[in-house]
Design a protein that fits this description.
The protein has 146 residues and is an alpha+beta fold. It has a domain of 101 residues: Phosphoglycerate mutase-like (Rossmann fold, 3-Layer(aba) Sandwich), CATH 3.40.50.1240. 23% of the residues lie in helices and 17% in strands. The protein is built from two helices and six strands, in the order ααββββββ. The strands form three sheets. Strands 1-4 form a two-stranded antiparallel sheet. The longest helix has 22 residues. The chain is globular.
Length: 146
């Protein structure tokens, strides 16, 4: 979960990396060898950062549209959790009548010093507590034991 107060672009990418490391470890610990496919659904920024983390390409040129499909496959010889994935489809909307629409990419935001310019957040939430953010997955064993 992102913090309610928002995050810098680098923090969005790091959150995706952190999530994937915990998620993949959880799959491997709880269901070793039993998973063949995983489906993740999300908003554009999340899909983009997950694809970039899995391919280890921070500049992967991808825009994500509504109801589009991005498909990655793990290379058979991949030794690392992140970076060993290849793109099969990016922002595929060919199954939709008019294709993927309302696509978005990080290039659509104005950034200065790593921060989004002129984004005041959700008006009226300035005084709310910023809790319950970060990883929502709890590993059966602590990361320090792995």
């Amino acid at each position: 979960m992102p913090p309610r107060t928002g995050e810098e672009v680098e923090e969005v990418h790091q959150r995706a990396i952190d999530f994937l490391q915990l998620f993949i470890l959880t799959l491997e610990q709880r269901w070793p060898g039993l998973h063949k496919r995983v489906v993740l659904m999300g908003h554009a920024a999340t899909v983009i950062t997950l694809a970039r983390a899995l391919t280890a390409d921070r500049n992967l040129p991808v825009r994500v549209g509504c109801c589009s499909v991005t498909e990655l496959v793990r290379a058979p010889d991949a030794e690392r959790m992140l970076g060993g994935w290849k793109v099969r489809r990016l922002n595929d909307g060919t199954f939709l009548k008019d294709g993927a629409g309302r696509d978005w990419g990080f290039e659509d935001i104005e950034i200065a010093d790593g921060k989004v310019v002129q984004d005041i957040g959700e008006p009226g939430t300035e005084g709310e507590a910023d809790d319950n953010y970060g990883p929502q997955i709890r590993l059966p064993v602590p990361l320090s034991n792995l």
